[in-house]
């Protein structure tokens, strides 16, 4: 049974707070292990990388064999179902079109005092994209990470993907090819993160690493942060659906299960103003579970972490949304724009009956790499900005300098930094 | 003696690479200690906070005594030199004016297929600003962190600042007051970061923590990342000055020392095309050092980490700038705009003879919180964007959904996620 909460009950606040407090993923104590792997790859380069790949992925290869060839990438596309390739191409094109809108503008202006200020944005030189192997190998995730980097103008986009027992997922390679990535290595885990951050004889280091991974990859990313940039550390995925009774319970149930089927730690929450509708959705969940291939995972996620929350009026949902700060938010209500004005925290907002999360997961255009575990309170989904950086600009006329320079001298003296003061005073001919 | 490098020599590449590789700050093994403090404050709240404050800051107080009163903030302004207060007010106004230009625009458009996409930016609810105590207590740093948060629209800006032996720097409190901060606690170290991240009985938790600190604060920020957002982990500061011979050596020397005087691990580098000018700057450094109060720190920094790099032509500097990716870059050359086009990596760029770094440190407007230690390759200075987050929006017409939905179904099946496929198929009446 999923959690049942009723916002009209006296004990709701406490029950809701308890529900939010439950940690969905156990954090294994992997930091120590990862620390050793990072140091080893940093010290021994390719030799260490090959050792860990043999041991952890059960794949013996040579330094030259680490790189996936152009022919293998081309071959992967040929090997995939043409409909899937076409869908990946449509997705790539739509993701690129949306992300083009995110390209930031430079700034360059001179104020009334004669001080020129601004900033310019430039792409990061080299980015490494981590792609998980095995069951979590998603071609859509390749596109969602690689396309914004390409739109940003990143010159070198490198992909790493583990090949357990030597096997790679052709869909993932096809997505890389479609995204325009031509540097792919068959490595994974903390050792791949180390290779990207520090470089080896075979793999030149990158400036930033993005992409999802298991606890070892997450720990490695956290530990190399500073040497390179990283994107967010993603936790289990979640959806919050606000639906009134005018929806089809079977459809809302499918949307809940689309989240639950990812992982037993995934979370699906329904907020509704209609008890009968909520029960109908729960029944539809059970019906769907009887025929879904991943029903074991989805069912366990729904029982352990799912919830149906009843509110008196649909408008009350906004307050709860901000408390959850969901990664994905579906507003399946008559006037989603009105509800939009009542909350602030959500990674991605899906409005109305024809924009299920799944549309955004694959083909709509906005990014599906989003802040999880309430981090939408302070962070955003992946964007073109994550693949660029900004340099500020400053220039001044002599008159502008004469006007504001003395205040800099005053503050330098106040902070006890006399060389700072001197730098300005000499220019004011007061040295 | 600072390092001497000559780009015209055969061994330059190796020498330059070695120079860049030197780590300027020793990383103490503080993570374990910090882990204990974080866990203790999380578990025991105020009681732990008071214990650590008594032990580490030698300051015994009560939970009620942690908060700096409104009267204390007002009193601090009254206690400061009026010229300094006026300079802080000018700085606040100019920093706010510049950062207003950084406020991002929302996006909302519908494409030819009838798919509505966009994003909206909202401020983070609550931000904690860490301010170091003691000698590194800089009022300018308070403004540079607080003003962008205020411009972003953050409702609750909290400041923490340690009071070693119970003493607070009135300039720091005055800057807080001028920046409009009214919630200030006299706590510091990892215990303050823990209080901000997890909350205590007295201090409500925040969503993001920014601001500089020592190794313990840096480790604490890194460890709470995920529970809250953090800004970058700042290392020792650095400046790279590109100057031709038409500059006054005494002025360039002062600019170099303005960086060196921060910290023995700070770094100042001069690139010039004129050997005589380089030597004149070195002599001027020695002359300045004889009269500067912080000459011991500045001299040690200059000897250990300073460098004079000679290039054949000033245009060759661009390539070296990108290798250093300096936090601060001064272009004291005839045509700084031309040089600007030859490189990409720098935190802040100061152009021409009337825009020394110091002007930007205090009053010009752009932020002085900038990426250090080559991280300008992948990150940017503090901005309004660091205090906001973006939610993506998606909506679709039935026709748009019918057009792109089938591609989502194809990809869902390819990834083996049947509930994903079902969510779309039911809406296509294919369930």
TrEMBL record, chains A, B:
Pathway: Amino-acid biosynthesis; L-histidine biosynthesis; L-histidine from 5-phospho-alpha-D-ribose 1-diphosphate: step 9/9. It holds the Pfam family Histidinol_dh. Zn(2+) binds at residues 259, 262, 361, 420. InterPro entries: Ald_DH/histidinol_DH, Histidinol_DH_CS, Histidinol_DH_monofunct, Hstdl_DH. One of its GO terms (molecular function) is zinc ion binding. Substrate binds at residues 237, 259, 262, 328, 361, 415, 420. The keyword NAD applies. Gene3D superfamilies: 1.20.5.1300, Nitrogenase molybdenum iron protein domain. GO terms for biological process: L-histidine biosynthetic process. GO terms for cellular component: cytosol. Belongs to the histidinol dehydrogenase family. PANTHER family: HISTIDINE BIOSYNTHESIS TRIFUNCTIONAL PROTEIN (PTHR21256:SF2), HISTIDINOL DEHYDROGENASE HDH (PTHR21256). This is Histidinol dehydrogenase.
């Amino acid at each position: 049974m999923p959690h049942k909460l009723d916002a009209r009950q006296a004990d709701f606040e406490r029950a809701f707070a308890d529900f939010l407090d439950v940690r969905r993923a156990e954090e294994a104590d992997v930091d120590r292990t990862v620390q050793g792997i990072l140091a080893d790859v940093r010290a021994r380069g390719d030799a260490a990388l090959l050792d860990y790949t043999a041991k952890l992925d059960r794949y013996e290869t040579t330094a030259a064999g680490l790189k996936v060839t152009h022919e293998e990438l081309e071959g992967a596309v040929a090997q995939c179902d043409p409909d899937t390739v076409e869908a990946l191409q449509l997705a790539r094109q739509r993701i690129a079109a949306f992300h083009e809108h995110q390209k930031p503008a430079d700034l360059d202006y001179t104020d009334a005092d004669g001080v020129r200020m601004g900033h310019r944005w430039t792409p990061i030189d080299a980015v490494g994209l981590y792609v998980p192997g095995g069951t979590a190998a998603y071609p859509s995730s390749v596109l969602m990470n690689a396309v914004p980097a390409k739109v940003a103008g990143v010159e070198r986009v490198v992909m790493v993907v583990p090949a357990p027992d030597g096997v790679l997922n052709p869909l993932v390679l096809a997505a890389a090819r479609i995204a325009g990535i031509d540097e792919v290595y068959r490595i994974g885990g903390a050792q791949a993160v180390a290779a990207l951050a520090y470089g080896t004889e075979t793999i030149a280091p990158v400036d930033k690493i993005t992409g999802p991974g298991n606890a070892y990859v997450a720990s490695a990313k956290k530990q190399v942060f500073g040497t390179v940039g990283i994107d967010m550390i993603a936790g289990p995925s979640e959806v919050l659906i606000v639906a009134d009774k005018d929806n089809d319970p079977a459809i809302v149930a499918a949307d809940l299960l689309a989240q639950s089927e990812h992982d037993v730690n995934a979370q699906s929450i329904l907020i509704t103003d209609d008890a009968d509708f909520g029960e109908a959705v729960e029944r539809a969940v059970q019906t769907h579970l009887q025929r879904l291939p991943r029903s074991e995972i989805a069912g366990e996620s729904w029982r352990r972490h799912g919830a149906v929350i009843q509110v008196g009026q649909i408008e009350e949902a906004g307050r709860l949304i901000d408390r959850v700060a969901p990664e994905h938010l579906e507003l399946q209500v008559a006037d989603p724009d009105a509800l939009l004005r009542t909350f602030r925290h959500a990674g991605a907002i899906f409005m109305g009956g024809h924009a299920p999360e799944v549309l955004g997961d694959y083909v709509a255009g906005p990014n599906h790499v989003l802040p999880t575990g309430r981090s939408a309170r302070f962070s955003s989904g992946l964007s073109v900005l994550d693949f660029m950086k900004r340099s500020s600009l400053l220039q001044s006329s002599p008159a502008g300098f004469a006007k504001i320079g003395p205040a800099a001298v005053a503050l330098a003296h106040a902070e006890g930094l006399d060389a700072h003061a001197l730098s300005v005073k000499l220019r004011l001919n007061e040295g």
